[in-house]
Design a protein that fits this description.
Blueprint (H helix, E strand, L loop, with lengths): L9 H5 L1 H11 L2 E3 L6 E3 L2 H9 L4 E2 L24 H12 L2 H22 L4 E3 H18 L3 H10 L17 H20 L5 H10 L6 H32 L1 H9 L4 H11 L5 E6 L3 E3 L2 E3 L4 E5 H4 L34 H19 L2 E3 L5 E2 L8 E3 L1 E4 L1
Parallel strand pairs: 2-8
Antiparallel strand pairs: 1-2, 3-5, 4-12, 5-8, 6-7, 9-12, 10-11
This protein binds protoporphyrin IX containing FE.
């Protein structure tokens, strides 16, 4: 008998939203026998879990299977009060004023990349634009030169490739070990000669007395590299896909770039790159009449909450004119995305030039390839033809 949740199926990979709807209606607190995980899909249940970190803890990591080196060292793998203390320090490095100062370089890089693609009518939007562009932007933040940023891109290639299965480890352990070593090397370089990047800001904060270990610096820089890559990297193809499906809204935003923030917000609600995160249940708890025992691992499906018809009007409709709603695309509560301001600013800067550059475009969906992990939604390959 087919179960309500088939994460290995092509149907789920292509359109998880149909599955989410059935789960919300028929089994909002679902125990997946195969993985042993509990799945929450309704808006109000997820909102409740995020507000109650004592019961739904991040202390075992927020990825379904997190890398042991990171757990307890990153913002996403600790609870308040230590989380809030560390977040104040990390937030200094991601402050809007710091992001503002790097937008000029991001714009220059994205224009250069479009210049390189100028002569090509067709290219792979992921391989030829989004992926290298995002690694350049993250590289600027981490103070990597162009060659080193390419090295980082290669190291992160297997992320969310589904090597550990669609519910398993997002990155093979040996790849993570390489990335940890790579970031350790960068930390050592910045300790010897500080610059203007995130490593250096955190090292300076530490020198001024902030309570921060080198492992915490490494852990959080691995979040910038890996989570930034997964979330921001998949976000761009999702926007391009959404606007291709809705040409009227694409034309509207091309005529009025003031609509760009609405496009960004609606894509993060409607088809977020960050579909789910995990929590650890610390004490027995009951939701919607179902008991979840202490020690369970729970997956919170933000992508489902964003489309919960109990809260969101016409949730399956992509509508940049919709009234702003509180969505979960950037999470909510103490762990709400620390890079959301940066993400919104960088996305706007790139889309301002990208949409006029692409003009009327077609996507070859039949030859596209999707990422295959329940935590993310996006494309590994998205062939595009400019008209
Ligand atoms: C469109 C792009 C992005 C999306 C959709 C996104 C989404 C999210 C979500 C849903 C969470 C909550 C995780 C949880 O509940 O456990 C989160 C956390 C986080 N994000 Fe993002 N993110 C994006 C870009 C970025 C970027 C570019 C950075 C870094 C430069 C970043 C850094 C972080 C950090 C450090 C956390 C952990 C915060 C905490 O636990 O206190 N994000 N993000």
């Amino acid at each position: 008998m087919m179960s309500l949740f088939e994460p290995n199926s092509d149907a789920f990979r292509d359109d998880p939203y149909a599955t989410y709807r059935r789960l919300r209606d028929e089994a909002p607190v679902y125990h997946d026998e195969q993985s042993g995980l509990w799945l929450l899909t309704r808006y109000h249940d997820i909102e409740r879990a995020l507000a109650d970190y004592a019961t739904f803890s991040s202390s075992r990591g927020n990825a379904i299977v997190d890398s042991p080196q990171r757990v307890g060292k990153t913002l996403g793998s600790m609870d308040p009060p230590r989380h809030d203390e560390l977040r104040r320090v990390i937030q200094r490095a991601l402050a809007p004023s710091r992001v503002q100062s790097m937008l000029g370089v991001v714009k220059e890089l994205s224009r250069r990349r479009m210049g390189e693609l100028q002569e090509r009518k067709s290219f792979d939007f992921v391989e030829d634009f989004a992926r290298p562009m995002i690694f350049s932007a993250l590289g600027i933040m981490l103070g990597l030169d162009e060659t080193t940023a390419v090295e980082a891109e290669h190291l992160a290639r297997n992320l969310f490739e589904g090597h550990g299965g669609p519910m398993g480890n997002a990155l093979p352990a040996e790849d993570f070990a390489e990335i940890w070593k790579f970031l350790g090397g960068e930390l050592a370089k910045r300790t010897a000669s500080p610059a203007e990047d995130l490593f250096s800001v955190l090292l300076a904060a530490k020198a001024e007395g902030a309570n921060l270990s080198d492992e915490e610096i490494l852990g959080n820089m691995s979040t910038v590299l890996l989570a930034g890559n997964a979330s921001l990297g998949h976000f761009f193809p999702n926007v391009i896909h959404a606007l291709w499906q809705h040409p009227d809204q694409r034309r509207a935003v091309m005529q009025d770039p003031e609509l760009l923030p609405a496009i960004i917000e609606e894509t993060v609600r409607w088809d977020t790159s960050t579909q789910s995160f995990a929590r650890q249940v610390m004490t027995d708890v009951e939701i919607d009449g179902v008991s979840i025992p202490a020690g369970s691992r729970v997956v919170l499906f933000y992508g489902s909450a964003n489309r919960d018809e109990r809260v969101v009007e016409s949730p399956d409709t992509f509508d940049i004119g919709r009234k702003r709603i509180r969505h979960f695309g950037f999470g909510l509560g103490p762990h709400i995305c620390a890079g959301s301001t940066m993400a919104r600013m960088v996305c706007r800067t790139i889309l301002e030039d990208l949409l006029p550059f692409l003009g009327d475009y077609e996507l070859d969906i039949a030859n596209s390839r999707r990422a295959h992990h329940v935590m993310v939604r996006g494309f590994k390959s998205l062939p595009l033809v400019r008209q």
